[in-house]
Design a protein that fits this description.
By secondary structure, the protein is α/β, with parallel strands linked by helices. Helices cover 38% and strands 25% of the residues. It folds into 2 domains: 3-80 and 158-246, P-loop containing nucleotide triphosphate hydrolases (Rossmann fold); 88-156, no CATH class. A 7-stranded mixed beta sheet has the order 6-7-8-3-9-10-11, sandwiched between helices. The chain has a 4-stranded antiparallel beta sheet with strand order 2-1-4-5, with helices on one face. It is globular. It binds adenosine-5'-triphosphate (ATP).
């Protein structure tokens, strides 16, 4: 598989707090990777480091072979590093279509309005919002606002898409729909990093899982092996969870790596 993103010993300190500490991993084109860890583990900070929102205290971010450690957020977006936010905030008075076209213009996918609107229509059809393209964004339901957020990111022509709790607040059926869409996005060759607290969801969609704890990457690997990893159980999952979900452990022992 072709490498698209590599973090080398990435760190971020806020004063005395080491929010991210010496984290290294690589992502391949088109893979879906779950990023998990307790509250305050450093997940959102890591996304902010990858997308140029925060300056690195140490280490390097390499995107498509290029050192992008010092990039600004707009440069990250234009390169194809897109992200969604925990709280979805569309421009409420603009239509659904206009919101997505704005994403396309910002991301540099299309410089001209006509081309941006065409791309926006395509992405709205892809996420299933074609029929409500001319509706003001304020009138969308929560699941549809989340789809809108995805369409906006896709209009930026991303190569890597970082999804920060994209399923929060959705019911089981809505989550299934969102996961189908995430798989369809990955099938286009876009790499997906999904931050998610619902383990059932992470396990059903991720090909690989990264575990952060106190800013450190304590394990990475195959989902079954990760949920059976004693360090991950102790730091995050708890023994009760492991007993429920970890039964297939013996088949893939050794697939995690401690770092
Ligand atoms: N801008 C900031 N200034 C100071 N400290 C920060 C800042 N952003 C994050 N932190 C601290 O860095 C640590 C990691 O926070 P972060 O939000 O990245 O964790 P998280 O894993 O995303 O948590 P959650 O699951 O609750 O969203 C926390 O101790 C947090 O208080």
């Amino acid at each position: 598989m072709t490498e698209i993103l590599r973090l080398e010993n990435v760190s971020k300190a806020f004063g005395g707090i080491r929010a991210v500490n010496d984290v290294s991993f690589t992502l391949s084109e088109g893979e879906i990777v779950g990023l998990i860890g307790p509250n305050g583990a450093g997940k959102t900070t890591l996304v902010n480091l990858i997308t140029g929102v925060h300056k690195l205290t140490g280490g390097k971010v390499i995107f498509a072979g290029q050192d992008v450690s010092r990039q600004k957020p707009f440069q990250a977006a234009r390169r194809g590093l897109a992200r969604t936010f925990q709280i979805v905030q569309p421009f409420p008075a603009m239509t659904v279509l206009e919101n997505v076209a704005a994403g396309s213009l910002f991301g540099g996918g299309h410089a001209a309005m006509g081309a941006a609107l065409d791309a926006a229509r395509q992405e709205l059809d892809f996420v299933g919002l074609g029929p409500v393209a001319d509706t003001p964004a304020a009138l969308l339901s929560l699941p549809n606002r989340k789809r809108l957020e995805l369409a906006k990111s896709l209009a930026m022509k991303p190569k890597v898409l970082l999804l920060d709790e994209v399923n929060a607040g959705l019911n089981a059926a809505e989550i299934d729909g969102a996961l189908d869409l995430i798989r369809k996005i990955a099938a286009r060759g876009i790499t997906i990093v999904i931050i998610e607290h619902l383990m059932k969801v992470v396990l059903s969609v991720s090909q690989r899982i990264l575990v952060l704890h106190h800013g450190e990457l304590i394990a990475q690997g195959d989902p079954t092996a990760v949920v059976n990893d004693p360090r991950v159980i102790e730091a995050y999952l708890g023994a009760k969870f492991a007993a429920r979900f970890g039964t297939a452990a013996s088949t893939s022992q050794g697939a995690t790596s401690h770092v």
